[in-house]
Amino acid sequence: MDNNEEKLMDEAEYGEQVRIRREKLKNLVAEGKNPFARTKFERTADSAAITADFAAFEGKRVAIAGRVLSRRMMGKASFAHILDAKGQIQIYVKIDNVGADAYEEWKKADIGDIFGVEGTVFMTHKGEISVSADKMVLLTKSLLPLPEKWHGLKDNDLRYRQRYVDLIANPSVKDAFVMRSRIIKAIRDLLDSKGFVEVETPVLNTIAGGANARPFITHHNTLDLDMYMRIAPELYLKRLIVGGFDKVYEIGKMFRNEGMDVKHNPEFTMMELYEAYADYNDMMDITEEIYAAALKAAGKGNKITYQGTEIDLSFPWQRLTMLEAIKRYTGVDYDKMTAEEALKAALELGVEIDDKKKAWGNIVYATFDQKVESQLTGPVFITDYPVEESPLTKRKNDDPRLTYRFEFFIYAREMGNAYSELNDPVDQRERFEKQAALRKKGDDEAQMTDDDFVTALEYGLPPTGGLGVGIDRLIMLLTDSASIRDVILFPTMKPKK
Q1: What local confidence, expressed as pLDDT, does residue 79 receive?
Q2: How far is the C-alpha of 45 from the C-alpha of 61, rounded, in Å?
C-alpha cells in the first residue's frame, strides 16, 4: 500500500467517525438529552490537586470535569483518563456504581467528549490515583475526533492553525504559555517595584514612528483617513516623560509588515520603558535585572541550554562597541576610515551595500549586521551605533558619528534595543528630514516625520534612557522553543485555500 492509498483510507476513516458522532448527537437530542444544554458544573477538585496530595483526598468524594482522552472498556466496568486544565487523572466507571442507564450512555461516549464526574478518590492495585465514579454527566459532545491518526500531531502547520487541538493533544504545550505568563508578571513586578508606571498608548497611529519598519495600513472611515498599526510606542512614551512622568513602561502588541521566519511574526509583544535622568548605561543595568527576574520566574539558574547550545547568562554581561566587535570578528578597523575607504573594505569582506545607504555609518552597520551578529552567542551589549542607523538617539559627545545606543544579543539574535534618548529638537527635526529623504528614494522602513513629537521636544525632554525588550524572543530562550510560533498562542498564518 502506498502513502496516497493510506492517506485516502485515513481520510475515509475520519469522515466515518465524524458521521457516527453526528448521528450520536442526533439521537441524544431526539431522546431529550441535549449534550450542550448544561450551563454549569460545580467542581470541587482538579487532577493536579488530587495527585499532589493524595493523602488529603483519599476516600473523599470529589467532583471533577474534563475531556475523555482514553478509555478501556471491560464489560461492566471501565477505566478512562480525563484531561482538565491542570493535567489528567484516571476514572473508574462501574455499572453497579453509576447505574445501568448511565453506564449505557457512557459506553456510547467518544474520545474527546467532556464529562462531569463525581466519585471517591482511591488508588488502584497498580498504584494509580483514580476517582471511582458514582455519577457521570455528559457536558459537551465532541463532534470531531482528536487527530491521533489523521494528519498526525507532529504537523506544525496544523498545530499553529488549530492551537486548541494542539493543546488537547499535547498538554505539555501549555507549559510554555504558563511560563510566558509568569515571566511577564515577574517583569511587571520588577518595574512596579522600581517606581515605573504602566501606561497604554495608541495602537492606531496617524504617523508610524518609533522604529525603522514597514507599517500595516488601515483606514478610518469616519475620518476618511489612512492610519497605521503601531510599530513601536516610543514617541508616545517619550511625550509622557516630557509631560512629567519620571518612569513609564508598556507591554503590548506591535505590528510590522515584514518577513516571517522563526524569529519574526507580524504581530509581536514588546516591553518598552523610559526613565528620566538616566542614560543607556542605566538601561544596561535594568536589562540585566529584567533577565534575572525572568530567569527566577522560569525556575532557571544563570546557565541555560537553548537548542543544544549552552549559554551562560551570568551577570554582568560583556560590553563591546560596534567598532570593537567588527574589529574583533573581521579584523577591519573602520574607526579612522573615510566613507570611501570603508566602502572598499566592506566590499572586500563581501558585505552587500545598499546603493541608497553608502554613508560611513551605513557601511559600519551593514558590516556588523552581515558579518558579526551571527557570531554573537552572547550575552553581549553592542554599543555606540552609527547616527545614520539611530534617528532617535543622542549623539556621543566625544564622537558625533556615533550614538549612545545599544542592542543586546543572545544566541546571535537581537533581543532588545536601548538609547540615551535624543532630546535636541533641532537635531531631531534634521534627522526626520533625512529619514523623509530616504522614504522618497523608496526606503519603506525609513521613519516618518512627526512634527508633534518635535513640538514636544521643544517644550523640553530631560535626559532620558529608553529600553525595548522583545518578549517573544525572551520566552523562546527560556522555554527552549525553536520558533516564535511556539510561544505565540495564535501566530499569523496564511489562510488555507
Answers
A1: 97
A2: 10
Reply yes or no: is the peptide bond before residue 379 cis, omega within 30 of 0: yes
Phi then psi dihedrals of residue 361, to 5 deg: -65, -35
C-beta neighbour count of 145 within 10 angstroms:
18
Could you say which DSSP state residue 369 is in?
A: I
C-alpha cell of 406?
Answer: 545599544
Cα distances from 451 to residues 325, 375, 387, 395, 455, in angstroms, run: 36, 40, 20, 21, 6
Domain contains 277: yes
Is the Cα dihedral 53, 59, 65, 68 positive or negative?
A: positive
Last residue of a domain, which of 89, 115, 150? 150
Dihedrals phi, psi of 448, to nearest 5 degrees: -85, 155
- Tell me if 165 is assigned to some domain: no
C-alpha 409/C-alpha 377 separation (Å) is 7
Q: Are strands 380-383 and 318-321 parallel, antiparallel or unpaired?
A: parallel
Integer angstrom CA distances of residue 163 from 139, 153, 488: 22, 11, 10
Mean pLDDT by runs of 10 across the 497 residues of the chain is 48 90 96 95 98 98 97 94 96 97 95 97 97 97 79 73 90 93 98 98 94 94 97 97 98 95 96 98 98 98 96 98 98 97 97 93 97 95 96 94 98 97 95 90 89 97 98 98 96 89
User: Is 117 part of a structural domain of the chain?
Assistant: yes
Given a contact cutoff of 8 angstroms between Cβ atoms, the answer to whether 208 and 231 are in contact is yes
Distance CA 18, CA 128 (A): 33
Q: Could you report the per-residue pLDDT of 88-130, keeping only the tens digit for each?
A: 999 999 999 999 999 999 999 999 999 999 999 999 999 999 9
CA 353 – CA 362 distance, rounded (Å) = 8
Helix axes 471-479 and 280-297, enclosed angle (nearest 10): 40
pTM score over 0.90:
yes
Q: Which residues have CB under 8 Å from 137's CB, separation 6+?
A: 38, 41, 115, 116, 117
pLDDT given at position 4 = 44
Domain hosting residue 297, numbered range? 173-317+378-486
Last residue in a domain, options 90, 115, 150: 150
In the chain, how many domains are there? Answer: 2
Q: How many CB atoms lie within 10 A of CB 226?
A: 10
Is there a single domain that holds both residue 479 and residue 414? yes
